[in-house]
Amino acid sequence: MQALLVFLIVAALSLLASSRSILDPGRFPALAQLAASGLLFLIFGAFLGPSLLGVLSARNLESLSPLVALGLGTGGVLLGLNLEPRLLRLLPRPVYAAAVAHAGTAFLFVALPLSVPLLLSMGLRPMVAVGAAALLGAAASLSSGHFAVLGYRNGRMERARGLGVALLTMMDDAVGLGVLALGLVLGVTGNAAEGLGLVGLALLLGVACGALLAFLTYSLKDLAEQTTVTLGMVALVGGAAAYLRLSSLLAGVACGATLALMGGRTAERVARALSRVERPTYLVLVFLVGSHIHARDVSAWALLPAFVGLRFLGKVLGGRFAQRLTAGVLDLPPRFGYALISQGGLALCLVAEYVLLVPGSLSQRVLDVVAVGAVVNEMLAHGAFRHVLSAERRASASRDTPSAGDAGVAA
């Protein structure tokens, strides 16, 4: 019954989010932006959750946790499918260094300072506090390149520069997933060896499911059969991981990476089948993450300005490092760091996974800070990207305007 209620609510919100009259960018630009990014569903989930209106109770959310795990598994498979081995081998080393630079700088700017209040305010063991601070840093390290994609599609940014931004924002997903694995190792059982074993089991489960999916879909030619088998196996990845108390997200990434490594038509078929359910799955997941927010947690609201401010500084400084490292290799726009402010949906997946596997007041506070911070960062990203576009226009104008010497030669 609770799952049906969630689907009905999300369906109603989807109709609202597709209304051109209500979400006209000319009339309500902020609302249209949040609807396009899916974060409008996060806000609605927070309002309907137990901490505000109470349409969904805490018991409802607990019974819907398998649905969250299925969404995390599906998102993980899609992430793993993007790990193209041929593309990764072709990328020069400065691109990897630039990705680590801009993601790592934001991670350090957030994780190191915020570990202090977590230790002092909650009286935690150092290992647990370090894991929670690492999750905050991992969420801060992630960026979304959707502003750059829209920029080059509508002609406001050169295509090569927009693709460069999208490439580096995709590569920092690996940093976030690696830190999630670290946080789970430190926090799931309190024993690093046992936590490492559980993370390893999640990856092995994903590899096994990916190999089985490739075997089952290899000889299928009917599109309906391929879609049914694909969705069933993806549900098996997330469901099996949740049943075994393993990471559904990491298992899904391992499954998708296995398919990408095999390559060929199998990976293309799976990606095509999942693309049909990607947006609805993402919106349901974002809504459920929003319903888990504790809006009355004063300590989370106190940490929020530090999280947003330190992440902003880290991204701007990390963007400068990335531009220096990729000079002559990758064409990036001026003020590249301002193009990295948007946070993206993977940050919500990281904290949702952390709450499922490491329940408690600490993981709840991490989710509150990151979820609300994602909305704030999305609003900041709109203004920050204007600085990128203005710098882009000035750079283009300076290239098109001939210098005095060139004018004399032309005369």
Question: Which features characterize this protein?
Answer:
0% strand, Na+/H+ antiporter like fold, 411 residues, 19 helices, 78% helix, single chain, mainly alpha
Structure overview:
- It is a single chain.
- The model is unreliable at 403-411 (pLDDT under 50).
- The longest helix is centred in the last third of the chain and has 40 residues, at 361-400.
- The termini are far apart.
- The chain has helices at 2-17, 29-37, 39-48, 58-63, 65-81, 85-90, 93-122, 126-141, 146-153, 159-187, 192-217, 223-243, 248-262, 264-275, 278-291, 298-325, 346-357, 361-400, 404-410.
- It is mainly α and 411 residues long.
- The chain has one domain: Na+/H+ antiporter like fold (Up-down Bundle).
- Helix 7 packs across helix 10 and helix 12 (223-243) runs antiparallel to helix 13 (248-262).
- The radius of gyration is 22 Å and the shape is globular.
- The protein is built from 19 helices and no strands.
- It is 78% helix and 0% strand.
Q: Could you give a short description of this structure?
A:
The protein has 411 residues and is mostly helical. It has helices at residues 2-17, 29-37, 39-48, 58-63, 65-81, 85-90, 93-122, 126-141, 146-153, 159-187, 192-217, 223-243, 248-262, 264-275, 278-291, 298-325, 346-357, 361-400, 404-410.
Q: Which helices and strands, and how do they pair?
A:
Blueprint: H1 2-17, H2 29-37, H3 39-48, H4 58-63, H5 65-81, H6 85-90, H7 93-122, H8 126-141, H9 146-153, H10 159-187, H11 192-217, H12 223-243, H13 248-262, H14 264-275, H15 278-291, H16 298-325, H17 346-357, H18 361-400, H19 404-410
